[in-house]
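User: Hey, quick favor. My workstation is busy. Could you predict this chain's structure for me?
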Amino acid sequence: MLRDPRVNQLDATARINAILEEQGHDTVSKSAVNRYAQKMERVGAKLKESREVAKMYIDRFGEDQSGDVGKIVNEMIRTLVFDITMKMHDKKFDADMAPELAKMLKNLSDAMNKLEQAAATNTKREREIKRLAAQQAADAMEQAAKSQGLTSEAVQSIKNQILGIA
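Assistant: No problem, here it is.
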């Protein structure tokens, strides 16, 4: 109801209270509904900001989620963990939320660990692909050079340069 621009907070509060009374629950105050609306507005603004940042990075780096984008995601998660930790130190959270925050931190930590492992796997895979491509180029060059009459030493020298061997 709060997202519907045709429904003001007073009407939303009245409708909510009617439902709560009908189900035998305590009613809520206009202030509680207002606080909830403000909180959801802040959450919505944060989500919008996160989407805009993600879009900016995707526009810059493309749809590929590896490499630089993966590093950015890792940094965003680290920042989020830091923010939560600082709020815990400043006691700017409801103590009843501590178990949920601990669960969130664990989940973030697990996600970050998986991202780090995926980044390491991607880096290793990219290195192997480059090595195989260089090897294929060196082998093709070797065949072509031998067919043109180059000496074995000249062929090996060129092959070493392609493979980056000193």
